[in-house]
Design brief:
By secondary structure, the protein is of the alpha+beta class. The protein is about 20% helix and about 35% strand. Helix 4 (about 240-255) runs parallel beside helix 5 (about 285-300) and helix 7 runs parallel beside helix 8 (about 375-390).
Length: about 575
């Protein structure tokens, strides 16, 4: 995949840049990999700059000699520092005869645990043919996906770890446990965590038939099930099934996984259990927290850094599960949550329950489903708006995996493959959230969107061709305003000219670009600088914005102009450390 902003003198035929791991542990060394290929023999100079937010913190220079048609991979040592979590941007300028012939960008982050920034991805193909093929993991690494769900990797839902290397899964797929183990090792080699999918209450029919007292039933006495294949079991703390499934989860981590993706189906919410010849009503929402905590304790006994993620299907029952011992708050999005602004509502609500846990939305994009036959550009236009809405709101998005795959529905093997041109754009979005993660996803961020801009609020005002407001309406610019110590961050999402604001839908065209937007911002603290950056810019540069100090009804304001807004731009107001 070409990954540069220009190659203007014909010397280069290929350039790409990426870190050798998806994430680095504190104190770990690593390399930025620069791939180059030239048409002719040449001596190239590489200038690699490392930035932490807007400030350059290091620079490396080296010369390389190339042979025509031979692709070289040049490792450059990372800039590292002792930190719990920080993101860095990397710019590589390629010079030939002292003239810049190409510029390429990437990002990386350092964290003490993947849960600081869980960029969730997926793997779902474990056929024999996959043996020895790590292209999927290499692909995910370039998108910085640092925690990977192994979807339907197991022998059965009630017996996870296969006894044989080759087996047939409940959906009839011929699978290889040898390939599963290879993929786990490959994921670990790229600094990623491997999460084993496990449905918390699903058994096959024969398992329930042998143990009818372990199941859950409706008021007519029939067992609950999904597609007459997966039968719902009793997850009350004293149920034998609970002992059984927690042991299955423990064995999965013992087999090499780094944790469990604990799935449920969103139903039943209440059911009947049979115990000691009597029937009792079970409220499943009251059972999940204890099950999550017990699973977390069990996996941590095997591996101290192991963790769990529980699926709140349709946001149910997050009010009960948010306080449990897990690494993130994960929500599988379903109607009636259909609008872009409602994605932010899910994230905001989850953060209000526990601001210290990151929020992951599983928001499938059916517009990409191969058999639907939709126009790919239509689907891509919508996808960027969905990603921008989730990221700018402070959430993460389970969407990418396999080899440039995108999830289209809850059965992961039905993923779509991105066009190379679109994958380049998506990489920029993931580069962006890695470099600026502490300004986008930090737990300290406070949302002041509805109190600082639009309506009666004059702390931040905008002058442009469309309304600027925090409501997320089409034909406006959606203003998401957040602050944390030392910063005020303006996330601007352009919804001008769209036919609808449904996040699952594609869009006929991209938003109408907004140019020369004037912003007036009340100076509440001394300002050190104001800058902007956008994942829509091929040149992933921080642009420092000049501002003038003007009178404001509450004192003084900084007035500046944002040159352009295509889909998503971030404006950062950095305050001086001293008054």
């Amino acid at each position: 995949m070409e990954w540069s902003i220009h190659m203007d003198n014909g010397v280069l035929t290929h350039i790409d840049i990426y870190p050798d791991q998806a994430q680095y542990k504190t104190g770990q060394s690593g390399s930025i990999i620069i791939e180059v290929e030239t048409r002719e023999k040449a001596v190239l100079q590489l200038i690699i700059g490392f930035c932490k937010l807007e400030q350059q913190v290091a620079e490396e220079r080296l010369n390389i000699s190339t042979e025509p048609g031979v692709r070289q991979s040049v490792p450059v040592p990372l800039f590292t520092e002792a930190t719990e979590w920080a993101g860095y941007g990397v710019k590589a300028a390629v010079l030939c005869n002292e003239a810049v012939v190409s510029t390429a960008y990437t990002s990386y982050d350092i964290a003490d645990h993947w849960s600081r920034a869980p960029r969730y991805g997926f793997l779902s193909d474990f056929r024999n043919e996959e043996s020895g093929d790590a292209r999927d993991v290499d692909s995910m690494n370039k998108f910085h996906l640092n925690v990977i769900q192994f979807y339907d990797w197991m022998y059965r839902h009630d017996e996870l770890v296969p006894a044989e290397d080759e087996f047939t899964d409940p959906m009839g797929r011929t699978m290889s446990y040898k390939v599963v183990r290879e993929k786990v090792a490959a994921v670990h080699d790229k600094g990623m965590a491997a999460m084993a999918y496990g449905a918390v209450y699903a058994s096959l029919k024969d398992f329930l038939q042998a143990r009818p007292e372990w199941g859950l039933y409706n008021r007519q006495g029939d067992p609950f099930h999904l597609i007459d294949l997966f039968y719902i079991m009793d997850i009350t703390p004293d149920s034998p099934w609970t002992d059984h499934i927690v042991e299955q989860f423990r064995q999965a981590v013992q087999a090499g996984f780094d944790g469990i993706h604990m799935d449920q189906y969103g139903f039943p919410k209440k059911a009947v259990r049979r115990i000691a010849g009597k029937e009792e009503l079970v409220d499943l929402a009251e059972c999940y927290r204890a099950l999550i905590n017990r699973t977390q304790a069990a996996v941590k006994e095997i591996k101290a850094e192991a963790g769990v993620i529980f699926n709140n299907v349709g946001n149910y029952p997050i009010n009960k599960t948010a306080s449990s011992d897990q690494e993130a708050l994960y929500i599988e999005v379903w109607p009636p949550v259909v609008r872009l602004r409602e994605l932010k509502g899910l994230i905001d609500h989850a953060r209000s329950l526990d601001p210290h846990k990151p929020v992951i939305l599983s928001a499938y994009l059916p517009s990409f489903y191969p058999e639907a036959g939709h126009d790919k550009e239509w689907a891509e236009n919508g996808a960027l708006l969905t990603m921008a809405s989730i990221f700018a709101s402070g959430g993460y998005h389970l969407l990418l995996g396999e080899d440039h795959g995108m999830l289209t529905m809850p059965y992961y093997p039905d993923y779509a493959v991105m066009r190379p041109e679109f994958a380049t754009e998506v990489r920029r979005y993931y580069d962006f959230i890695v470099r600026f993660g502490v300004l986008i996803h930090d737990a300290q961020l406070e949302d002041v969107s509805y109190t600082y801009t639009a309506g009666v609020n004059t702390e931040i005002t905008f002058e442009g061709n469309v309304p600027f407001a925090p409501n997320g309406d089409i034909d406006s610019v959606w203003t998401i305003i957040k602050r944390k110590p030392g910063y005020q961050i303006l996330q601007l999402i352009n919804l001008a000219g769209l036919e609808d604001d449904y996040w699952e839908h594609g869009k006929k065209q991209r938003p109408e670009a907004q140019n020369d937007v004037v912003c007036t911002l009340l100076i509440e603290q001394p300002i050190e600088c104001i800058y902007t950056a956008s994942p829509d810019d091929q040149a992933q540069e921080v642009i420092v914005l000049d501002y003038e100090v003007v009178p404001h009804g509450q004192g003084l304001a900084a007035r500046f102009t944002l040159p352009s807004l295509r889909i998503w731009s971030m404006v950062v107001v950095k305050f001086s450390l001293q008054e």
